[in-house]
Here is the input.
Amino acid sequence: MMKYSVNASVVGSKHLGVYEAENKEDAIRQAIDENGYVSLCHQCSSECEDAEIEDVSAEPIYDTKGK
Here is the structure.
Protein backbone atom coordinates (compact mmCIF):
# COMPACT_ATOMS: atom_id res chain seq x y z
CA MET A 1 0.00 0.00 0.00
CA MET A 2 1.27 3.55 -0.82
CA LYS A 3 1.89 6.32 1.70
CA TYR A 4 0.64 9.84 0.96
CA SER A 5 1.56 13.21 2.40
CA VAL A 6 -1.63 15.28 2.50
CA ASN A 7 -1.70 19.11 2.83
CA ALA A 8 -4.50 21.65 2.98
CA SER A 9 -4.73 25.38 2.37
CA VAL A 10 -6.13 27.08 5.46
CA VAL A 11 -8.20 30.23 4.96
CA GLY A 12 -8.88 32.87 7.60
CA SER A 13 -9.21 36.61 7.95
CA LYS A 14 -7.56 39.40 9.93
CA HIS A 15 -8.95 42.86 10.69
CA LEU A 16 -6.17 45.28 9.74
CA GLY A 17 -7.73 48.39 11.30
CA VAL A 18 -9.66 51.53 10.44
CA TYR A 19 -7.85 54.20 8.39
CA GLU A 20 -8.69 57.68 7.14
CA ALA A 21 -7.74 57.95 3.49
CA GLU A 22 -8.66 59.66 0.23
CA ASN A 23 -9.62 56.36 -1.40
CA LYS A 24 -9.70 52.57 -0.91
CA GLU A 25 -6.27 52.04 -2.42
CA ASP A 26 -4.66 54.50 0.01
CA ALA A 27 -6.45 52.89 2.97
CA ILE A 28 -5.23 49.46 1.86
CA ARG A 29 -1.66 50.76 1.46
CA GLN A 30 -1.74 52.22 4.98
CA ALA A 31 -3.14 49.00 6.43
CA ILE A 32 -0.55 46.81 4.73
CA ASP A 33 2.28 49.11 5.79
CA GLU A 34 1.11 49.02 9.41
CA ASN A 35 -0.37 45.51 9.79
CA GLY A 36 0.45 43.60 6.62
CA TYR A 37 1.79 40.50 8.30
CA VAL A 38 0.49 37.29 9.83
CA SER A 39 1.63 36.31 13.30
CA LEU A 40 0.81 32.87 14.68
CA CYS A 41 1.28 31.64 18.23
CA HIS A 42 3.82 28.89 18.91
CA GLN A 43 1.21 26.11 18.81
CA CYS A 44 -0.43 27.33 15.60
CA SER A 45 2.89 27.95 13.87
CA SER A 46 3.74 24.28 14.36
CA GLU A 47 0.59 23.40 12.37
CA CYS A 48 0.56 26.13 9.70
CA GLU A 49 3.35 27.10 7.32
CA ASP A 50 3.92 30.09 5.07
CA ALA A 51 1.07 32.23 6.42
CA GLU A 52 0.64 35.35 4.29
CA ILE A 53 -1.90 38.02 3.45
CA GLU A 54 -3.45 37.23 0.09
CA ASP A 55 -6.45 39.49 -0.60
CA VAL A 56 -7.11 42.88 1.01
CA SER A 57 -10.32 44.87 0.65
CA ALA A 58 -11.59 48.18 2.03
CA GLU A 59 -15.14 49.42 2.50
CA PRO A 60 -16.27 52.90 3.55
CA ILE A 61 -17.61 53.38 7.07
CA TYR A 62 -20.69 55.57 7.27
CA ASP A 63 -21.94 57.30 10.40
CA THR A 64 -25.61 57.09 11.38
CA LYS A 65 -26.43 59.97 8.99
CA GLY A 66 -25.08 58.09 5.98
CA LYS A 67 -21.94 60.20 5.54
The radius of gyration is 18 Å. The first helix runs from residue 24 to 35.
